[in-house]
Design a protein that fits this description.
InterPro entries: Serpin_sf, Serpin_sf_1. This is Serpin family protein. By secondary structure, the chain is of the alpha+beta class. The protein contains 8 helices and 21 strands. Helix 1 packs antiparallel against helix 7, helix 2 crosses helix 4 and helix 3 runs antiparallel to helix 8. The longest helix is centred in the middle third of the chain and has 17 residues. The radius of gyration is 22 Å and the shape is elongated. The protein starts with a helix and ends in a 14-residue tail after the last strand.
Length: about 425
């Protein structure tokens, strides 16, 4: 099953409800948890879950199992189900969970916090939910990534973000693309118009003849474009970028089709040069950033109410109260990117819920979207279900000053 469409659709729902404040999230983490619940659903709850998941629950569950039982080398992943007392009514559904899912009696809060730390590379210290005596069941998924760029950024002064950027006056240092290794272009999108795009690749890992990587794609639109539209365009551009490793021209605008001069998104100039053909050169400047977010997932559009009803009906008792929440963190800097998310879902009996050459320098000087996409190829051909899958996405509205360690050259740099 190709999962990028359903996850992008779910991501739009989730980001729209979160709003346009500075945040990071993993729609994939929430989608996976709902997919694991799916086989328990019948009747109206099943139909509602299929609408939210964007596919039938059996296909969604099978896809979730394939992802969680064969984790991507650069995306640590885990799932768990804990119950206060094992229910015979849930046994058949429990058997549909991934083989690597941790199951057992409901642990204490300290053990849940330890699980979150262990499965997020230490990036998330505390489990998103707090247990109470009324808690009957807790499910969770965790995703975590810590990568180094294949080619680190250079450093520029903040004014490189351009005269239209309020961030330029606040930041002393920002990131500039190196001479090679990063990809920058201007793309035409349906939802957000012309956008500035920057893609940085992780240092890949070779596993059993496969090249596992991650592409972190930043997408900026004009300042008046709604955040939801920029994020939707960013998912589309990022997935296409991960899949179009050969067709580098896909979705890209020629600099010769654009007017010279400055905009909030780029500065475009023309110089005389000696060459047999017209040349195009694109670089980018963008800020470092970090985010730590906690998202309430109880809105009806996100599907956890339907999941709660499905499990409640399966258990045959009275309607149960539920909580659904996600904690997510991310940091984007000169040398790499790290991110993690824990999505937690709990059922309780009595708690309320929670020819010339043209040069363009792209400027990420106002709020923009970021999507991190997993790649997994063998000989340049997709080799598994993780390839092209968006794992994390963010709306960057509060840039960070670069830390001192990002201002020094690494050992061995000439």
């Amino acid at each position: 099953m190709v999962l990028t469409g359903p996850v992008a659709r779910y991501a739009e729902r989730m980001h729209r409800l979160v709003g346009d404040g500075h945040h990071v999230a993993s729609p994939l983490g929430a989608w996976l948890l709902l997919a694991l619940v799916g086989p328990a659903a019948t009747g109206a709850a099943r139909a509602e879950l299929e609408d939210v998941l964007g596919t039938d629950v059996d296909r969604a569950a099978a896809t979730a199992r394939s992802l969680l039982d064969a984790p991507h080398p650069l995306v640590a992943s885990a799932s768990a189900l804990w119950e206060r007392s094992a229910s015979d009514a849930l046994a058949r559904w429990r058997a549909t969970l991934p083989e690597l899912t941790e199951t057992g009696p409901l642990p204490d809060q300290a053990a849940l916090d330890a699980w979150a730390r262990e499965h997020t590379l230490g990036l998330i210290e505390r489990f998103p939910l707090t247990l109470s005596p009324e808690t009957l069941l807790v499910m969770a998924t965790a995703l975590a990534t810590r990568i180094s760029w294949a080619d680190p950024f250079q450093v520029a002064t903040g004014d490189a973000l351009g005269p239209d950027s309020a961030w330029a006056r606040r930041l002393r240092h920002v990131l500039r693309t190196p001479w090679h290794g990063h990809d920058c272009w201007i793309a035409e999108t349906t939802r957000a118009g012309d956008v500035a795009v920057h893609a940085a690749a992780a240092r890949p890992e070779s596993v059993d003849g496969r090249d596992a990587g991650m592409l972190v794609v930043s997408v900026a639109a004009m300042p008046d474009v709604p955040a939801a539209d920029v994020l939707a365009a960013a998912h589309e551009v990022a997935v296409e970028a991960a899949r179009s490793t050969v067709e580098k021209g896909v979705g890209r605008r020629s600099l010769y089709d654009l007017p010279l001069g400055d905009t909030p998104l780029w500065s475009l100039r023309e110089e005389q040069t000696r060459a047999y053909a017209r040349e195009e050169h694109v670089s980018a400047v963008l800020p470092g950033w970090s985010a730590e977010s906690r998202h309430d997932l109880t809105a009806a559009a996100l599907g956890f109410g339907s999941a709660a009803r499905a499990l409640g009906e399966l258990m045959g008792g009275p309607p149960l109260m539920y909580e659904a929440v996600q904690s997510a963190v991310a940091r984007y800097g000169r040398y790499g990117f790290e991110a993690a998310a824990v999505t937690a879902f709990a059922l309780a009996t009595g708690l309320p819920p929670e020819n010339v050459a043209r040069f363009a320098e792209l400027r990420f000087g106002h709020p923009y979207a970021v999507v991190a996409v997993a790649t997994d190829t063998r000989g340049g051909v997709p080799a598994g279900p993780w390839h092209g899958l968006p794992v994390y996405s963010a709306w960057v509205a509060q840039p960070s000053e670069l830390p001192d360690e990002d201002l020094t050259e690494p050992p061995g740099t000439v």
